[in-house]
Amino acid sequence: MRRPARPRRAVLAAALAAALVVAGAGAAAVTGLGGEDAVAVDEQELEVSVGPEPSGERVSLDVSVFAPEEGAPGADDEGRRAAVLLAHGFGGSKDDLAAQARSVAAAGYVVLTWTARGFGDSGGLIHLDSPDYEVADASRLLDLLAERDDVLLDAPGDPRAGIAGGSYGGALALMAAAYDDRVDAIVPAITWHDLSQGLFPQRAVSGSAVGKTPAPGVLKQRWASLFFASGLAAGLDPSAASAAPGVDPQCGRFAPRVCRLYDEAATTGRPDEAVLRLLRRSSPAPVLDRIAAPTLLVQGLQDSLFGLDQADATARGLAAEGTPVAVRWIDGGHDASGTALSADDLVDPALAWFDHHLRGGPDPGEAFDLSLPASPFGEEEAEQLTAPAYGEETTTTLPLAGARGDGPQPLLSPPGGEPAALTSLPGTGPLLGAAGSTGAGYALGALPGESAVFDTPALDEPLTVVGSPRVRLSVVSSTTDATLFASAWVVSADGAATLPRQLVSPVRLEGLTPGRPREVEVALPTSAYRVEAGQSLRVVVSSTDAAYAVPEDRRTYVVSLAGDGVVVPSVDAERAAGTGGLAPTPLVVAVGLLLLGAAALALLAGRRRREAPVVAELADVPLAVDGLVKQYSNGFRAVDGTSWRAERGQVVGLLGPNGAGKTTTMRMLVGLIRADGGTVHVLGHPVTAGAPVLARVGALIEGPGFLPHLSGRDNLLAYWAATGNDPATAHLEEALAIADLGVAAERPVRSYSQGMRQRLGIAQAMLGLPELLLLDEPTNGLDPPQIRNLRGVLARYATGGRTVVVSSHLLSEVEQTCSHVVVMHRGRVVLEGAVADLVDRSGSTLVTVEGDPARAVEALTGPGGLGGPGGVEQAVVEPDGRVRVAGTAPRPALVARLVEAGVPVAAVDGRRHLEEVFMSLVGEGQPAQVADADAADAGTVRR
């Protein structure tokens, strides 16, 4: 239940908002990944000696320390601050973390980054986060921080410090907290719980072996090879520290024991006890009882290397020990298209976590936040869910039946393991995911004769799967062991099947009696996804998978069901994004702070400006720009006499390359900077700084500004109170519905991720449902599903007579989002018109040919061609290699002429994309004001 607003709090919030505006501050500005730091940061490079290698070789680490200069928050009376160590991923270096380090330092922390032992310019060898080496190195770095006079101490030699890192660095954070109680808080991301399970996963919950000891798992062969190859590559770099004596070229920078054990396991496909001991010792699993540091676990749904089951085991183990733990499942991981974690994924949540546990800031709580991806069949969009705590799931049992009822299904495991089912390619999960959504993925992942299939009935109501479904199977093998791969597919009403996140569960059974059944309970892949009403869940059991090591000999299995069905977990979570209102989407929409400042100062001073006269002929025009000029002191004209309009019901794209003058124009539209010439009218009213008509405008110009210690709701109340408008006209609940923060609207903004602040930004911009909305590069930082949702938001917002202006350099997005476009180049408007008219190619043809396109131009316009009146008037080669043909010659005649001239034709198209129009106007090597004939016909060309 939403708590009622308290008037006294709202008045206080309004006063604080006004103070914030007067000060011109925006605390969130310093937390973004790689952004402009509001506080100067000093960087110091160090070479730090650590423990030697077993050979006696001395080792030093390449270290950087980032310290904020005076003015950053977080210092005590003596100028001391809490410290944060940032640890990089496997194969990386401290350079990967420089942008994050500067952002965290600007937020008021002393930040230490280092290149781990065995990588980059640090010495030594790779021991896989061994307690004796890499973990001991982290303790030495804590010693270094304790010696600094700008680091806060809890006791002599004990710095107030947290550690954050991803993958290899995430495991290091957990291990360091286990072996050094000076670590006060940690944020490990996309990392392992037990490295032996990470590389040799075993998803048989029971029945995998005779006796109590589970059978060893199945080698994750492709990932293990990539993992090891990156360490080898480092050893082959002659410029790296690995050139030191003692480096075996066959092992790169891996320690000899690690190298030898990997060779043995990779050759046999099975780990012996020595390999398992090594991997477990480099894991948090056996030492969770030593970790007292509050832990925020961030794990990715797109991760076939270290899956959600790894974070699940860590979270449950820490909670059992009484350690404070919060969990976030993000739409990313080792299989995501990018390798670096964004500010939204790691840096911003880490700051909120550290601010509380290291500096006594607002408590971000111990909620379970997770990303729920969009439906692969297009019915539902992506959204965020929030549950009060992790590990409180409910279950639903769905009945299963095979193609021939509950009877056994035989499988062949072919000799050599080929052909093998293809469900994932390490590091390229999205590629097969796209194939899976078209049906091709199922054909690759469930090979005939090598897979058993069991389906649930079509669901009567939607079901959200959060966690690891369980199924009991009966397995008969022709040998004494069996290797199988189980997966859960979502099947649409028309029979199309897709595999969520391309994940499978390896199962290895040993101690079997050939011909006799063994019952086994299998944990299907841990994930989060929807099964909509009318869809069903399909359990597929395969004998092969290309990502794993499989038996080389021929064998057969028979698989049947041994339980009531598939047990599906879910959680009682509320939607934190993606619901109702005008449209669900996290996006960057907010009013600039200076606009708020003008309104707040006018309110506080009790003064109101007198309304300027209305221009009658423009009274019904939401935005009219006439001859707008902005010239700087050096004579450069950022905006050079632009004129254009945005009418009611339009979504207008202000399009141009970086430096075209778009942002400068947007700032002049709301009076943030003064124009040197020309006028701007909103609904007939001239715009100047603080003009009353701006109360009818919402704008994102330079991002939202919020008070970090107030909740999202109270920030909105503060903003609206500062404008002096009637609270009843705020449409607060409608704006919050658009942002869809859910219960997070009641939490302090300091605890928000970047995406959540963006969603709060849209609520702020749409308070009062303004008639004109101005958005400068609104898709910055949004992923494809969020961008797709943004299109619907803007289209619906413009319905009913409201108007939206979007500036962007993303041509494809403008084409799909906007109804009209204004093209700027070098400060001038060079074209404006309806998008549909601009991309219509009536009277023009695009021809794709094989070979040299110049031959096509010659064939059409040269001797024997179709040139002249009534034929081809012009043929030119576009930047993408296609031939653009203008004129009235029929397209069949064009094709016939090209074929006659021996020019192979691959495609003919009568419609172009907005990018082609844009490049014809502002492409390299072309005059800025020269437009092609088609553009001139479709829109208004400025010369």
Give the strand order of the largest sheet, numbering strands 1, 2, ... along the chain: 1-2-4-3-7-8-10-11-12-13-27
Helix content: 25-40%
What's the number of structural domains? Answer: 5
Mean pLDDT: 80
Helix/strand/pairing category: alpha+beta
Q: CATH homologous superfamily of the largest domain - what is it?
A: Alpha/Beta hydrolase fold, catalytic domain
CATH class of the largest domain: Alpha Beta
CATH architecture of the largest domain: 3-Layer(aba) Sandwich
Query: Regions with pLDDT < 50 over 5+ consecutive residues?
Result: 1-37, 238-244, 577-610, 924-938
CATH topology of the largest domain: Rossmann fold
Kindly provide the radius of gyration, computed on alpha-carbon positions and rounded to a whole number of angstroms: 31 Å
Shape: globular
The biggest beta sheet reads: 11 strands, mixed
Total beta strands: 42
Beta fraction of the residues? 25-35%
> First CA to last CA: what distance?
60 Å
Number of helices: 24
Can you give a write-up of this model?
The chain has 943 residues and is of the alpha+beta class. The chain has five domains: 31-196 and 284-371, Rossmann fold, CATH 3.40.50; 213-280, no CATH class; 393-571, Sandwich (Jelly Rolls), CATH 2.60.120; 577-823, P-loop containing nucleotide triphosphate hydrolases (Rossmann fold, 3-Layer(aba) Sandwich), CATH 3.40.50; 841-910, Alpha-Beta Plaits (2-Layer Sandwich), CATH 3.30.70. 27% of the residues lie in helices and 26% in strands. It is built from 24 helices and 42 strands. The strands form eight sheets. Strands 1-2-4-3-7-8-10-11-12-13-27 form an eleven-stranded mixed β-sheet, sandwiched between helices. Strands 33-34-35-30-36-37-42 form a seven-stranded mixed β-sheet, sandwiched between helices. Strands 9, 14, 16, 19, 23 and 26 form a six-stranded antiparallel β-sheet that branches. A hairpin with a 2-residue loop joins strand 36 (820-825) and strand 37. Helix 3 packs across helix 4, helix 13 packs across helix 15 and helix 16 (732-739) packs antiparallel against helix 17. The radius of gyration is 31 Å and the shape is globular. It holds the Pfam family Peptidase_S15. It comes from Nocardioides kribbensis. Residues 1-27 form the signal peptide. Residues 623-851 form the ABC transporter domain. GO terms for molecular function: hydrolase activity.
